[in-house]
Amino acid sequence: MEFGQLEAFLAVIREGSFTGAAARLNLTQPSLSARIQQLEQSLGGELFHRDRRPVQLTPLGRIFVDYAERALGILDAGYTAVREAQKGTVGRVAVCCPFSLATYLMPEVVNRFGQAHPQAELFIEAGHSDFAVNQLLDGVVNLALAAAFPRYAAQTQTLLRLHDEMVVAVSQEHVLAKATAVPISQLWQYQLIVIHWGAAFDAYLHSLRQMSEAPGPTVRVPLPAALSMAQLPNSVTFLPRRLTNVSDLVELDVPEFQFDWDAIVVTRRERQLTELEQSFVDIVAAVWHRTRP
Fold this sequence. Notes:
Arc Repressor Mutant, subunit A, 13 strands, globular, D-Maltodextrin-Binding Protein, domain 2
């Protein structure tokens, strides 16, 4: 299995065709097809349904794609580290964090870090918490932010814990926007926009809805879509308090709704931070405490 084979495999997925992938990689189509065939031979099965347009992954291909992406990510991180050492780069901090934290925490952190270290490179990638921790454990990044789940803490070294809480959020035009002491049962009368915040929160929300005789339907969407849909006057969603405060949404007063939503900043176990990385962690702490709701 070679780098070029993995690169060709992922290019076909991104372009949706062998022709587009060949053009992307500046290869002839026979050369690209040969790489895919060699990869399939090493894996013992076909990766693509070639008779469909756009080209679609087989079950084997769907299993393999995540591993191929992670393998290329690790190789790219190693290449970058070697290149920086050869160039004598001042320094680099590589971080992965959830989309929610990237939305409301990272802008100010990036601004402060740039002012403190104008010659340093800051690389930030966003994804869900599982993705962030996997990127850290694979060595693609050296710092990660994630939901403070015990399984993440057990795999990593916690550097910082950031406390937040989930709240019920609605648009400013919502009929409940200015209400006080809203009962849980009243929420189910509106369109629920639900983001996957993890199994623990899903279970908590499910238990609340079970207590209602007519809980109504839900819409499950990714965070960016949820923020737009929550602006509709008949919608209700659930967000970290800090994200609600910067999203032009209103936090409802729902006394029965209480769910802590802490995040952690982590690195690999027994790893020592560089001075730049420690500075980044210190800036995250300072921004978090300064912007406390």
